[in-house]
Write a structure and sequence with these properties.
The structure is a single chain. Helices cover about 85% and strands about 0% of the residues. With about 130 residues, the protein is mostly helical. It has one domain. Helix 1 runs antiparallel to helix 3, helix 1 crosses helix 4 and helix 4 packs antiparallel against helix 5. It is globular and about 55 Å long. The relative contact order is 0.16.
């Protein structure tokens, strides 16, 4: 594994933030849209697709996810896959958990917080 340049961290931060925003916005969009099975039964497949494509939250999520994808490409160009993926995944996991707790008002138990912490410890060990 090559040395991990410090310049990779800002790129990873942008990737993590955009990825987490995309995940949270997609969750919000799908919650507002409702059960797609019910929507499909009531309005057909075209109605379900229309409902998804008509959601502003859906398009914001897609835009954020696209930005995170292109940022990931930049990160992979500058650092090894064996570092970029675990680092970005672990911190995304933490940010998603925080957003789920405080923005989406989900219940997050101690087991999830412990898991997130252990993943971060593993990433720290990878950087040494």
């Amino acid at each position: 594994m090559r040395n991990i340049p410090l310049s990779i961290w800002p790129i990873l931060v942008v990737f993590i933030v955009l990825s987490s925003i995309g995940d949270v916005l997609m969750s919000k969009a799908m919650t507002l849209i409702g059960d797609l099975g019910v929507v499909r039964r009531e309005h057909g497949i075209a109605g379900a697709v229309g409902r998804v494509l008509g959601s502003g939250w859906f398009w914001l999520a897609i835009s954020s996810m696209a930005g995170s994808f292109f940022t990931l490409l930049i990160a992979l160009n500058r650092a090894d896959l064996s570092f970029v993926v675990p680092a970005s995944s672990s911190f995304s996991f933490i940010l998603n958990t925080l957003a789920a707790k405080f923005y989406l008002r989900e219940r997050v138990d101690a087991r999830r917080w412990t898991a997130a912490g252990l993943v971060c410890v593993g990433v720290f060990l990878l950087t040494k």
